[in-house]
Amino acid sequence: MVILSKPAIEQFSYIRNKQPAAALFPPLIPVVDLSKPDSKHQIIKACEEFGFFKVINHGVPMEFISRLESEATKFFSLPFCEKEKTGQPKPYGYGNKRIGPNGDVGWVEYLLLTTNQDPNISTENPEIFRAALNNYMAAVKEMACEILEMVADGLKIQPRNALSKLMMDEQSDSVFRLNHYPPCPDVLQSLNSNVIGFGEHTDPQIISVLRSNNTSGLQISLKDGSWISVPPDHHSFFINVGDSLQVMTNGRFKSVKHRVVANSVKSRLSMIYFCGPPLSEKIAPLPSLMRGDQQSLYKEFTWFEYKRSAYSSRLADNRLTHFEKIAAS
Ligand SMILES: C=C1C[C@]23C[C@@]1(O)CC[C@H]2[C@@]12CC[C@H](O)[C@@](C)(C(=O)O1)[C@H]2[C@@H]3C(=O)O
Ligand SMILES: O=C(O)CCC(=O)C(=O)O
Ligand SMILES: [Fe+2]
């Protein structure tokens, strides 16, 4: 349960339920069948048009998904005093309503973990939770690697592991997150408005691999600034282009702005693997993507420098602005 005190109620953001133009004729979210020979072309198109797509025939065993979902459900059903024994997110740990260190809040509780250390989660049976996490993360990492190799192939980048090696590196700074959005009580669902579960933002990493139960809530922003709802599909995965991939493609792919709205009836559980590079990695446009005298849109920076700056930003900030080159007039 998300713990709610009276003054905290006032902190939540709402969005008006006005119908954006795109909501009348929403474009279909691209679906990529990873078992099809032309999937790499579909991936490139989806990354250019939406920065977002759904993946089917992904090869992640349903058994791993269900086991982690069941362990996560058990964890979030524990009394608050048990869950908080995991420790507050600094940046890893158990968090409730507060997202990040700079005052963002949402109708959500979560576990934020690094992928290269065994987590210390306070549950009745941490070994079983850990095994479920490890199986799931290993299978999702393999799928993400395959997707990044298809991206490299589709963009004719050599070698084909130029992107995937960053997240496969032993030192990779990847992050895993379990989000639980309890049903939001009527008192908070004021007339014709939605309560924000997770405010709008882009993900900082290369790509993020998201899977949720069958409860809706996720929305993505289109190029025209309108928002569309992503129909949930618990058998599939959703891929977000992150800020790092935007830079590595020199803006050809755009990181997708997304958010989650709370549901008044059902709880939403999501699990997200954020594929990050090693901290020392330079994030810059890939030389093979630069044509002729094309210039980098970004100043040089390492993932460490980007993260340090990201952690002093608010969720909705454009974290890349700080690293953009000022265009010469
Ligand atoms: C407000 C914040 C939370 C966040 C760190 C930040 O200062 C800005 C980026 C946020 C974000 C969004 C995507 C992921 O959920 C996340 C783990 C990440 O890498 O960047 C979160 C950070 C967080 O919750 O710590
Ligand atoms: O929980 C979700 O569905 C999305 C959350 C998200 O975007 C994030 O944790 O970065
Ligand atoms: Fe996100």
TrEMBL record:
This enzyme's EC code(s): 1.14.11.13
Keywords, ordered alphabetically: Dioxygenase, Iron, Metal-binding, Oxidoreductase
Catalysed reactions listed for this entry: gibberellin A1 + 2-oxoglutarate + O2 = gibberellin A8 + succinate + CO2
Function: Catalyzes the 2-beta-hydroxylation of several biologically active gibberellins, leading to the homeostatic regulation of their endogenous level. Catabolism of gibberellins (GAs) plays a central role in plant development. Converts GA9/GA20 to GA51/GA29 and GA4/GA1 to GA34/GA8.
Pathway named in the protein's UniProt entry: Plant hormone biosynthesis; gibberellin biosynthesis; Hormone biosynthesis
Database matches in InterPro entries: DIOX_N (IPR026992), IPNS-like_FE2OG_OXY (IPR044861), IPNS-like_sf (IPR027443), Iron_ascorbate_oxido_reductase (IPR050231), Oxoglu/Fe-dep_dioxygenase_dom (IPR005123)
Protein name: gibberellin 2beta-dioxygenase
KW Metal-binding (keyword) present: yes
Domain Fe2OG dioxygenase, first and last residues per copy: 171-277
Source organism, top-level taxon: Eukaryota
